[in-house]
Write a structure and sequence with these properties.
The chain is of the alpha+beta class and about 180 residues long. The chain has a domain at about 45-130: Immunoglobulin-like (Sandwich). The protein is about 30% helix and about 25% strand. It contains two helices and eight strands; from the N terminus they run αββββββββα. It has helices at about 20-45, 150-175, and strands at about 50-55, 55, 60-70, 75-80, 85-90, 95-100, 110-120, 125-130. The longest helix is centred in the C-terminal third of the chain and has 27 residues, at about 150-175. The model is unreliable at about 25-35 and about 35-45 (pLDDT under 50).
């Protein structure tokens, strides 16, 4: 009886470089490029948001202006409450533009429109409201100090004298040691 050869796997031809890995690498690179560009595209497609702080101010007061999402490095702000203002970037990506304005001392009380224009006239725009109250802005200490009673002055003076006496006592004690 002749010996039968054991089953052997069929011989395979040497593998040649197929185009599949190359196509896969190209698709991955294209996906990476699209993914990297998408957030910037979406940020510019969204409308900008703007704010005025404080939203209520007396004539002669200052307001901070901020717009985000313009996609430009400059914005223009106009209002009947103050002169035209150009905003500048607050960071390197120019996603936030900042500035400030002083409300006219003769501004009429009531609501005033504040229009932010990205890139200047003709760009994307956002309008917010600024409320001007009757009266003038408080000067000097900025309205942080009102009237003081005699009791408050006496307590403040007593605290200052106590602190001074304590400091002198500590210095004399160190000098004696």
């Amino acid at each position: 009886m002749p010996a039968t050869p054991l089953a052997q796997p069929p011989a395979t031809a040497p593998r040649s470089r197929s185009a599949a890995p190359r196509r896969l690498m190209t698709a991955a690179a294209a996906t990476l490029v699209i993914a990297a560009a998408t957030p910037a595209t979406l940020a510019h497609a969204a409308s900008p948001s703007a704010g005025v702080s404080p939203t209520t101010v007396a004539p002669g007061g200052r307001v901070a202006l901020n717009v985000e999402g313009c996609g430009t490095k400059v914005a223009r702000v106009t209002s009947t409450a103050f002169n035209e203002v150009r905003l500048t970037p607050g960071n390197l990506e120019a996603t936030n533009l900042f500035g400030s304005a002083t409300v006219f001392s003769n501004a009429l009380p009531g609501a005033h429109r504040v229009t932010f224009e990205c890139g200047g006239p003709g760009g994307q725009s956002v309008t917010v409201s600024l409320q001007v109250t009757p009266g003038a802005a408080r000067g000097g200490t900025g309205g942080s100090v009102g009237s003081m009673s005699t009791t408050q002055i006496a307590v403040g003076a007593a605290l200052a004298v106590t602190a001074l006496a304590g400091g002198v006592w500590v210095l004399r004690r160190r000098a004696a040691a």
